[in-house]
Structure formats: C-alpha cells, structure tokens
Amino acid sequence: MAEIRLQKFLSECSVASRRKSEELIRDGKVWVNGKKASIGDKVDPKRDDVTVNGKKVTVVKQKYYIMLNKPQGVISATEDRTQKTVLDLVPKELYRNGLFPAGRLDGDTTGFVLLTDDGDFAHRILSPKNHIMKTYHAALRDPLTDEDIEKFKENPSIQFAYQYMNNTPTRYMDAVKDKRSSKPSGSSEQAAPKKKRKKKQKKGA
Question: Along the 205 residues of the chain, how does pLDDT read in single tens digits?
C-alpha cells in the first residue's frame, strides 16, 4: 500500500482532524515505529506501527456523518471549558471518538452543522480550492431598503450575495442589473458629474 502523510492517516483513522493531528505531532504525542514523529512524515497503514499518547492507532473502515441542527449559545468546537459545544449535543448512542464539526457556525447562529470522523471528506468540502458554495439565510430586524442594496453593491469585500426568488438562487449582481434595465428609457435620473482631480504641483518646479 502506498505511503500517505501521517496527519492524513490519523484523520482517516478518526483520531482527529488533519489540523488537530498536526498539533498532536508537533506536541510530540505521535510516534511511528518507536520514534517520535515529525510534520511531513509518511506512513504505510499496513506496515507501520503508529501510536498517539501511547495508544496504538488502528485503521477504521466505517465513517460516521451526523446532521446537527445547532441552536443558539452552542459553539462549533470539540471541547470548551466554559461553553457547550456541538459534541455535547450528540446522543450517547450516536457518539463516536474522533467526531468533530466539519466547518463552523458562530455561537449566535443556528442551523445545520455536519459532524463526522471522516477527516479526508471534511478536508475536501472545506478546502477553498474546491469552491464549494455555501448558502446562509439571514433574518433582518428591519426591511432591506434600496439604499442598503446599494451599500452592499459598493462594498468591495462582498463578492457575491444572493437573492431568493421562487426558491431559486440568483446572483445579486444579476438582480441589480435586471432592476436597472427595467427603468424607463426616458428616466429623468442623471449620473452625477465626476469631480476633476487637481494635479499636484511638484516642489521646486
């Protein structure tokens, strides 16, 4: 069997996520064939003996995926000393070692959180290079005005926004374009004149 990176092996064996596995390696808690492991090490799952905190790591074939509806006041973490975590909500009959949230929602945000022990799958759906789109629903205290929409459009930090019409997601910029094109051709609105920039004179000229 081909060698794979140690943190990937630990993730696939439900020890921890890849990031957490790297922390375990840096902390000197992972050993391979009797030697302390280092970041970048590779292992052969069938041949090498891997231990974490003195316990042998065994290959896990079955993976678990739990859909959790996270309530307010619960954080997307595996453990916390002061706050309740998403793992605290998992019933005993469903709990497995190695579960972690694939992604996160803020403490005040409610909704779907995926809990899994499949580190490789979590890495694929969370990696920015895979461009997996996520959709969020926001409940507003006050109605959204045209002025608010313009502010969203002008904000360079927001690349995409979505407007739901008949439950079909539409790119916000397309919606704005359609709205503008629907204005009468004889509209009295005129573009504000551009201000001319004054050229600064160089010192000593």
Answer: 578 999 989 988 878 888 889 999 999 999 999 999 999 999 998 899 999 999 999 887 778 899 999 999 999 999 999 999 999 999 998 898 889 999 888 898 899 999 998 888 888 888 888 888 777 777 788 888 888 878 777 765 554 444 433 344 444 444 444 444 544 544 444 444 555 555 555 555 4
Please pick, among 44, 106, 120, 148, the residue that the annotation labels catalytic.
106
Query: pTM for the complete prediction?
Result: 0.49
**What does the chain look like in DSSP terms, one character per residue?**
---EEHHHHHHHTTS--HHHHHHHHHTT-EEETTEE--TT-EE-TTT--EEETTEEP-------EEEEEEPTT-BSSS--SSS-BGGGGS-TTT--TT-EESS---TT--EEEEEES-HHHHHHHH-GGG----------SSPPPHHHHHHHHH-TT----EEEETTEEEEHHHHHHHHHHTS-TT----PPPPPPPPPPPPTT-
Q: Would you call 106 a catalytic residue per the annotation?
A: yes
